């Protein structure tokens, strides 16, 4: 175990505390027994003096005195059975020549034994009690022991997620973002830290997946202009082909700039600068990027204003237009508005499966089903601008709707 770890320090503190508790208990218990023995000796000192005065005679006055003091007197024949008790405990012993004085505790009662050459007798203290403060000490010791042990175990349970978290942080460097940490309703610092780490790992996973989607779509988008460029290079070099080749390079440059902007968005490194723009200006920009003929688009929209980032929003519109035409039976689309909603309508086959799957990375695998930059990126561009992307299929027509997110409605 790492000597610098919190768990090791907590365990060491627990062991030291328990040892100190045990030593304190032993000391207090020993001291308590000593004080109790001393108290007994002090209690019976007057009785000892009275017995000393009796010498060899036990008269009636002495017996009456013992009775009044709640003492019982036993002589030789009755002493032996009592002293044979295995539970007897010697508290005090004094030898004075041939005389011996002892104090015993038997079954919670105190006995005083006087042994002399000619006579021996035993005095029982009827009012003596076996109660001792030692019971309090034992009780307090076990209470403290269990409380400290409970707190130690509870602390270990609280620190256990921290140990798991340490292992997960190490694995995070190997891009192992998927892990499970037992959920807890507690609100302590370690639980909060664990939840935040899990959220951070999830964000890192999303960024990784977004970059993979981004790279995959770069390859897809660049493939067409590169192929066209290769074909043009093999043709006779004339003014017309040179102009087409120039358009290809302009298209490549536009795509690279577009990718750079989108990369900043999906990496969440860019705070969007938004202003009010007319829808017509955004559509014109999207058409210019696509080098699209106006005849392919039927305009049924009102020239509403939108508070967005011009470049990114144009890219989102551009991709919706591109996909709508590409997958349309008539290779055309209609753009219309209903209030603040912008609708992109084409005639074609209905999307397969749940629409939400198209908004997730890696949801579409084959080239036949690919959506260029993908609805995933379109959705995130719109989301960053405060809009949602909805889908419906009515009367043989696909309808993609850009709708203002209610959270951003003022």
Give an overview of the whole structure.
- The protein is α+β, with helices and mostly antiparallel strands and 410 residues long.
- Among the domains are: 129 residues, no CATH class; 137 residues, Heat Shock Protein 90 (2-Layer Sandwich), CATH 3.30.565.
- It contains 10 helices and 12 strands.
- The protein has a 5-stranded antiparallel sheet with strand order 1-5-4-3-2.
- The chain is rod-shaped.
- About 2% of the residues have low confidence.
- Its EC number is 2.7.13.3.
- This is histidine kinase.
- It is an enzyme of class 2 (transferase).
- It is a multi-pass membrane protein.
- It is found in: Membrane.
Shape: rod-shaped
Work out the helix count.
Answer: 10
CATH C-level class of one domain: Alpha Beta
- Superfamily (CATH H level) name of one domain: Histidine kinase-like ATPase, C-terminal domain
The proportion of residues in beta strands is 15-25%
Q: From the structure provided, what is the oligomeric state, counting identical versus distinct chains?
A: single chain
Biggest sheet strand order reads 1-5-4-3-2
The termini sit apart by 58 Å
Please name the CATH topology of one domain.
Heat Shock Protein 90
Overall SS class = alpha+beta
Low-confidence stretches: 364-372
**DSSP helix fraction:** 40-55%
Most strands sheet: 5 strands, antiparallel
Number of E-state strands? 12
The arrangement of helices and strands along the chain is HHEHEEEEHHHEHEEHEEHHEE
Average pLDDT metric? 80
Organism: Aliarcobacter skirrowii
Subcellular location: Membrane
GO molecular function, one term: phosphorelay sensor kinase activity
Membrane topology: Multi-pass membrane protein
């Amino acid at each position: 175990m790492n000597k610098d770890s919190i768990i090791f320090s907590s365990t060491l503190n627990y062991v030291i505390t328990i040892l100190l508790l045990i030593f304190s208990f032993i000391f207090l218990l020993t001291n308590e027994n000593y004080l109790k023995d001393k108290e007994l000796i002090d209690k019976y000192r007057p009785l000892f003096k009275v017995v000393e005065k009796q010498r060899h005679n036990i008269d009636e006055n002495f017996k009456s005195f013992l009775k009044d003091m709640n003492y019982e007197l036993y002589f030789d024949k009755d002493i032996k059975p009592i002293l044979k008790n295995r539970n007897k405990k010697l508290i005090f012993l004094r030898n004075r020549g041939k005389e011996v004085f002892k104090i015993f505790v038997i079954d919670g009662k105190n006995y005083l034994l006087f042994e002399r050459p000619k006579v021996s007798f035993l005095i029982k203290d009827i009012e003596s009690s076996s109660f001792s403060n030692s019971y309090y000490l034992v009780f307090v010791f076990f209470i403290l022991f269990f409380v400290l042990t409970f707190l130690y175990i509870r602390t270990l349970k609280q620190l256990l997620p921290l140990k798991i978290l340490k292992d997960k942080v190490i694995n995070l460097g190997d891009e192992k973002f998927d892990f499970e940490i037992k959920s807890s309703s507690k609100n302590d610092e370690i639980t909060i830290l664990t939840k935040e780490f899990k959220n951070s790992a999830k964000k890192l996973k999303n960024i990784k997946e977004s970059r993979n989607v981004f790279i995959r779509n770069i390859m897809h988008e660049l493939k067409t202009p590169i192929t066209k460029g290769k074909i043009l290079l093999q043709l006779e070099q004339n003014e017309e082909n040179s102009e087409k080749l120039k358009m290809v390079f302009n298209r490549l440059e536009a795509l690279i700039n577009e990718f750079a902007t989108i990369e900043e968005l999906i990496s969440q490194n860019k705070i969007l600068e938004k202003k009010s723009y007319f829808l017509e200006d955004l559509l014109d920009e999207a058409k210019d990027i696509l080098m699209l003929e106006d005849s392919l688009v039927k305009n049924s929209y009102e020239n509403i204003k939108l508070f967005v980032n011009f470049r990114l929003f144009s890219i989102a519109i551009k991709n919706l237009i591109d996909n709508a035409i590409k997958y349309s039976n008539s290779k055309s689309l209609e753009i219309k508005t209903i209030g603040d909603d912008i609708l992109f309508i084409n005639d074609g086959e209905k999307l397969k499966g749940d629409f939400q799957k198209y908004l997730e990375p890696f949801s579409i695998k084959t080239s036949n089903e690919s959506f260029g930059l993908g609805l995933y990126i379109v959705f995130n561009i719109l989301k960053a601008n405060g809009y949602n992307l909805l889908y419906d299929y009515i009367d043989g027509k696909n309808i993609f709707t850009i709708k203002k997110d209610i959270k951003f409605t003022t």
